[in-house]
Specification:
By secondary structure, the chain is α/β, with parallel strands linked by helices. The chain is built from 15 helices and seven strands. The strands form two sheets. Strands 1-4-5-6-7 form a five-stranded mixed β-sheet. Strands 2-3 form a two-stranded parallel sheet. The longest helix has 17 residues. In the C-terminal section; belongs to the anthranilate phosphoribosyltransferase family. GO terms for molecular function: anthranilate phosphoribosyltransferase activity; magnesium ion binding.
C-alpha cells in the first residue's frame, strides 16, 4: 500500500527544498486531492513567495516533455486570468516577432477564463495542434516559430486538473506556466495579470537564472502592455534589474479603450488576427506593435521601444508575418 505524502502547512512561507518536494509529490500523484486542494488554496490566500514559485517551476520543468531550441529563442506568454477577454495579443506578437527573424517558442494552452486561448485561436486559423506539437522542434528550426501546447508538454498537470477546476480561482500553477517553457528559453516577455505580483515573479525568474526578461503588467491588471494607459515594466538581465513605466503615446501610438481590443470566440479572434496581418490599422495592431517591441528588445533585435515598434510594423506591412503564418499552417 502506498502512503500518501503529507503536504506542508501553506500558512507560512516554505523554503525551496520543502516547496520543491511538495510540488513533486503533487505532480507525481503522491498527495490526495483534498490535501492538494487545501495546499494550493492556502498558498493563494497567503500569496506565494518568489522561492515557492521558483521551486514549483523547477518541479514542473523536471517532468515536462522538452524540445530543443536554437540560440536566442524567446517566449511571449502571460499568466492569463486578467478578465479583460481581449483579442489574442501574445499569439499575434509571437507571429510578428518570428517574422522579424527571432526564433519564438510560443508556450500556451486553451482558454481557461476567456473565450479563446492561444490554442483555440491558432486552431481556428487552421493550425493542426497535434501535428504542430509533434513537429514543434522542426518547426522552430525551419520556420523560427512553434507552438508548445501545454497539454502535450506537461502531462503531469493532467492529474491536478480536477482539483484546480474545483478551486475555481487562480493558483500558483497560473504563475509558473510562463516559467516552464518546454524549450527552456532563457529570454522571455512575461505578462502578469496582477501588478502586485510583478516583483514576486521577477524574483522567481532571477532564482531560475533567466538570461534576459521583461515582465509587464497594464495598470488595468492586464497580463500584457496596455494600449489604454501606462504599464509597469521590470527588466532583468546580467546587469540586474531596472524598472520603468511605458505608455502608448510615448512610442507614437494612440491610446485606445480596452473595449476596442475585446475579443470573442476562437473564430472571431482568428478573423481579427488575419485582418491584423493584412495591415489593417486598428487598436489591435497598436497593442501588438507595443508588445512586439518589448519582445524584440528582450531578443536583442531592437535597441529601444521606437525601433521595436518600427521593426514590428515593417514585418506586418511587408506581408512577412502573414506569409509566415501561412507557411506554419501548411508545415
Amino acid at each position: 500500500m502506498t502512503t500518501l505524502a503529507l503536504l506542508p502547512d501553506p500558512a507560512s512561507p516554505l523554503d525551496h527544498a520543502t516547496a520543491h518536494q511538495a510540488f513533486a509529490d503533487m505532480l507525481d500523484g503522491r498527495a490526495g486531492d483534498e490535501e492538494v486542494h487545501a495546499f494550493l488554496l492556502g498558498l493563494t490566500l497567503r500569496e506565494e513567495t518568489s522561492v515557492e514559485i521558483a521551486a514549483a517551476a523547477r518541479a514542473l520543468r523536471e517532468r515536462m516533455i522538452e524540445v530543443q531550441a536554437p540560440p536566442g529563442a524567446i517566449d511571449v506568454c502571460g499568466t492569463g486570468g486578467d478578465g479583460a477577454h481581449s483579442l489574442n495579443i501574445s499569439t499575434a506578437v509571437a507571429i510578428v516577432v518570428a517574422a522579424c527573424g527571432v526564433p519564438v517558442a510560443k508556450h500556451g494552452n486553451r482558454a481557461a477564463s476567456s473565450k479563446a486561448g492561444a490554442a483555440d485561436t491558432l486552431e481556428a486559423l487552421g493550425l493542426d495542434l497535434d501535428r504542430a506539437s509533434a513537429r514543434a522542434e522542426e518547426s522552430l528550426a525551419d520556420l523560427g516559430l512553434c507552438f508548445l501546447f501545454a497539454q502535450k508538454h506537461h502531462p503531469a498537470l493532467a492529474r491536478l486538473a480536477p482539483v484546480r477546476r474545483a478551486i475555481g480561482r487562480r493558483t500558483i500553477f497560473n504563475l509558473i506556466g510562463p516559467l516552464a517553457n518546454p524549450a527552456r528559453v532563457t529570454r522571455q516577455l512575461v505578462g502578469i495579470a496582477r501588478v502586485d505580483y510583478l516583483d514576486t515573479v521577477a524574483g522567481a525568474m532571477q532564482l531560475l537564472g533567466i538570461e534576459r526578461a521583461m515582465l509587464v503588467s497594464g495598470e488595468e491588471s492586464l497580463d500584457e502592455l496596455s494600449i489604454a494607459g501606462p504599464s509597469r515594466v521590470i527588466r532583468l538581465d546580467a546587469a540586474g534589474r531596472a524598472d520603468e513605466t511605458v505608455a502608448p503615446e510615448t512610442l507614437g501610438l494612440e491610446r485606445h479603450p480596452l473595449d476596442a481590443i475585446r475579443g470573442g470566440d476562437a473564430a472571431f479572434n482568428a478573423a481579427r488576427l488575419r485582418e491584423l496581418l493584412l495591415g489593417e490599422p486598428s487598436a489591435y495592431r497598436d497593442a501588438v506593435l507595443l508588445n512586439a517591441a518589448a519582445a524584440l528588445i528582450v531578443a536583442g533585435h531592437a535597441a529601444d521601444w521606437q525601433e521595436g515598434v518600427e521593426e514590428a510594423a515593417e514585418a506586418i506591412d511587408r506581408g512577412l508575418a502573414k506569409a509566415l503564418l501561412d507557411c506554419w499552417i501548411a508545415f
